[in-house]
Write a structure and sequence with these properties.
The chain is α/β, with parallel strands linked by helices and 410 residues long. It folds into two domains: 227 residues, 3-Layer(aba) Sandwich (Rossmann fold); 151 residues, Glycogen Phosphorylase B (Rossmann fold, 3-Layer(aba) Sandwich). The chain is 34% helix and 16% strand. It is built from 13 helices and 13 strands. A seven-stranded parallel β-sheet has the order 3-2-1-4-5-6-7, sandwiched between helices. The chain has a six-stranded parallel β-sheet with strand order 10-9-8-11-12-13, sandwiched between helices. Helix 3 crosses helix 4, helix 4 packs across helix 5 and helix 7 packs parallel to helix 12. It starts with 6 loop residues before the first strand and ends with a helix. 40% of the residues are buried. The mean pLDDT is 90.
């Protein structure tokens, strides 16, 4: 008897060519699921940005259904003009009146279109597995509401970030009623999902304490690196200029840390260089105030992964400025950097990330109030790192992690 071919319907609000790190995780899984001859279909929100994802080549040939989320675009922007600010407030007030829970959840108005598309694809393609990724978490909620109509289909909810238990996405700044509404939706998703994946083991531990009855549903499915050609760095050379690099999301609430970093770079303008690769010009004003922007601090558009890896191996250190709320959650880029054997300078509070880096001799840890002193010591050669070039990062590859995911598909 011939074994029936497996298939997956992935539901991710962001998916290439839409830009944003939120689309990377399932673009990469889609790529490697297809390499294992698993049919992949995708439902995502319409592309509303002019920028293009750096992971577009990973999803070529995948059938993607795009839905109008009906969420006001202006709420996702940073309004500058008076008219924009007025319009922002009007639209935000409208959304607050229509949504009982988190009014920043962009999937809040997508239910009708989502339901129609999901049921159609499941029927036509005989889908056996649905993977729905949040944030936005209303996607998870709406799919779980469809469970009675999805007989024989396995629902896998992917929580890329904590939903209610770590004050994510400004939820802690909302009313208790709104927080409770989100907790109800979270509990419903936990109950109705067949499996819940999360990128870090600490998230699994945290949610297991909240829902011990369902702890067997929770598994770690890490972020991973995807490097098709080896680009190992064998030694950390300093040829007069110490080169630093930052890329990906520039996190909020780290203004003070960036300001202290800028001050050090200002005092070492001829012996240091920082290259930043990201879509957003965030914090350029701070570097400009310190007179280092376009002097020894340079912002660039994002690169494709292979191009970025080539830049990485020319660098002495990657700088990770970690906000307090993220100190226990591994970012995708950490494993990419480790694979390329680039020492990480971690700036932030002690947590799972810093402990991991220190234990394995993969980075230098700097507390937030010691940035200028410690960075100056690095530039002076007073702080060194016996980097662990033998660290085995192979189990953090997308290929290996996808194999783990496949074992949970029906």
């Amino acid at each position: 008897m011939i074994e029936e071919k497996k298939n997956v319907l992935i539901i991710s609000y962001i998916f290439p060519p839409a830009p944003g790190i939120g689309g990377r995780r399932w673009a990469k899984f889609a790529k490697y699921l297809r390499k294992k001859s698993i049919d992949v279909y995708v439902i995502s929100a319409e592309v509303v940005d002019d920028a293009i994802s750096t992971w577009i080549s990973d999803v070529e040939g995948i059938e993607v259904i795009r839905l109008n989320s009906k969420y006001p675009k202006i709420i996702s922007t940073n309004p500058k003009s008076l008219i924009e600010k007025i319009l922002y407030r009007i639209k935000l007030l409208e959304v607050k009146c229509r949504i009982k829970g988190n009014y920043f959840d962009k999937a809040a108005f997508i239910e009708k279109n989502l339901k129609e598309s999901v049921l159609k694809v499941v029927k036509e393609k005989k889908i056996k597995n649905i993977i729905v990724s949040g944030f936005p978490f209303y996607l998870n909620y709406f799919i779980c509401k469809l469970k009675p109509d999805l007989s024989g289909v396995k629902i896998i909810s992917d929580f890329r970030d904590p939903w209610t238990w770590k004050n994510s996405y400004s939820l802690d700044k909302m009313s208790i009623d709104r927080q409770n509404e989100e907790k109800k939706k979270e509990a419903f998703v936990v109950e109705k999902s067949d499996l819940i994946t999360m990128p870090s083991n600490i998230m699994v531990e945290e949610i297991s304490l909240l829902y011990p009855k369902y702890k067997d549903k929770f598994i770690e499915l890490p972020h991973g690196y995807d490097i098709e050609e080896s680009c190992f760095k064998t030694e950390n050379k300093n040829l007069g200029v110490v080169k630093f690099i930052m890329f990906g999301t520039m996190y909020i609430t780290i203004e003070n840390e960036i300001s202290n970093l800028a001050e050090v770079l200002k005092n070492n303008i001829n012996t240091s260089r920082l290259d930043v690769y990201c879509f957003s010009p965030k914090y350029t004003s701070i570097f400009e105030e310190h007179n280092v922007l376009n002097e020894n601090v340079f912002y660039h558009n994002p690169l494709t992964e292979n191009e970025l890896y080539k830049k990485l191996i020319e660098t002495n250190y990657y700088i990770l400025v970690c906000p307090d709320h993220a100190k226990d959650y591994f970012f995708t880029k950490i494993f990419e950097i480790i694979y390329c054997r680039i020492p990480i300078i971690y700036i932030g509070a002690k947590g799972t990330i810093s402990i991991f880096l220190e234990k394995n001799n993969l980075g230098i840890i700097i507390e937030k109030d010691q940035i200028q002193n410690e960075f100056q010591k690095i530039l002076n050669g007073e702080i060194g790192l016996n980097y662990n070039y033998n660290f085995d990062a192979s189990h953090y590859s997308m290929r290996a992690i996808t194999e783990k995911l496949i074992t949970h598909l029906i």
